Amino acid sequence: MRLDVITIFPEYFEALRVSLVGRAIEHGIIDLHVHDLRDHTHDVHRTVDDTPYGGGAGMVMRPEPWGEALDAVLDGADDDPLVLFTTPAGRVFSQDAAVHLSGERHLVFCCGRYEGIDQRVVDYAASRWRTGELSIGDYVLNGGEVAVLVVVEAVARLLPGVIGNPESLVEESHNARLLEHPSFTKPRVWRGLEVPEVLLSGDHGRIAAWRQQAGLERTRRMRPDLLG
Ligand code: 6GU
Questions:
Q1: Closest to 108 (Cα-Cα) out of 137, 128, 88
Q2: What does the alpha-carbon distance between residue 41 and residue 81 come to, in Å, rounded to a whole number?
Q3: Helices vs strands, H then E, count in the chain
Q4: Which of 20, 101, 181, 216 is 20 to 30 Å apart from 60, CA to CA?
Q5: What span, in angstroms and rounded, lies between the C-alpha atoms of 174 and 159?
Q6: Residues of the chain whose pLDDT is less than 70?
């Protein structure tokens, strides 16, 4: 999968070069390209933002650098790219969305900052490519960089060959509407606290039933909304 990221903070994306995603890049499963939006400015201050028409607080990202950056990244792309703008006004990202995105060949992430990007950039992009606007939840971040890190990690781990044990993906999708059961490892007794006996029983049927029940109870307590 090819990933392009357009941002005024390329440094954020160094984090993708570690751990599982880093290995996926090294192995060629992910082809990551990070672009500095300021490389598409032409003034000495490398200006990317300006005051909003109509007044109000905050700054809006100017359209010209975005137009140039999108053209530079996307002109000539023949792999049906999907252009995604990060914004708290977007559709909320989910595991279902991650599964859908993991089937794409080429994602282009546009990281908004300040009060957002001039709307004409989003409209222009939609006139030329497939586009989407996404948020990662109902809270406000200073910009889309961290949101893109979240989305890339959630998508990357679904790509074939990224996760060491693909069985865990099967289990996850099987239990998609339920929280995970609690987990335990050695030692069997720690500070007087014991691992539930059933997990030591070797009885796979009882263990599966216990986990199912524990996941259900946890979901009722923490996320009753998931049970409808
Ligand atoms: Cl994608 N961007 C910003 N700025 N804030 C957010 C967000 C995105 N998702 C949740 N909050």
A1: 128
A2: 24
A3: 7, 9
A4: 101
A5: 17
A6: 114
Compute the distance between CA of residue 107 and CA of residue 104 in angstroms, rounded to an integer: 7
- Would you say the CB of residue 116 lies under 6 angstroms from ligand 1? no
| 163 known ligand binder | no
**pLDDT of amino acid 206:** 98
Tokens 């003034």 -> residue: 43
Residue 164 pLDDT: 85
Residue 143, ligand 1, Cβ within 6 A: yes
Q: Which of 135, 138, 142, 145 to mutate to test the pocket of ligand 1 (most atoms within 8 A of CB)?
A: 135
Domains of the chain: 2-157 (3.40.1280.10), 167-226 (1.10.1270.20)
Looking at the DSSP bridge assignments, the partners of residue 85 are 110, 133
Q: What is the pLDDT of residue 171?
A: 82
Annotated ligand binding at 138? The verdict is yes
Q: Is 139 annotated as a binding residue?
A: yes
Q: Whose CA is nearest to atom 5 of ligand 1?
A: 141
Check if 139 has its Cβ closer than 6 Å to any atom of ligand 1: yes
Distance, in Å, from the CA atom of 7 to the CA atom of 145, rounded to the nearest integer, reads: 7
The complex scores an ipTM of 0.98
Q: Which atom of ligand 1 is nearest to the CA of 136?
A: 9
Structure tokens at 102: 């993991």
Q: In what order do the strands lie in the sheet with 82-92?
A: 31-36, 2-7, 106-111, 82-92, 130-135
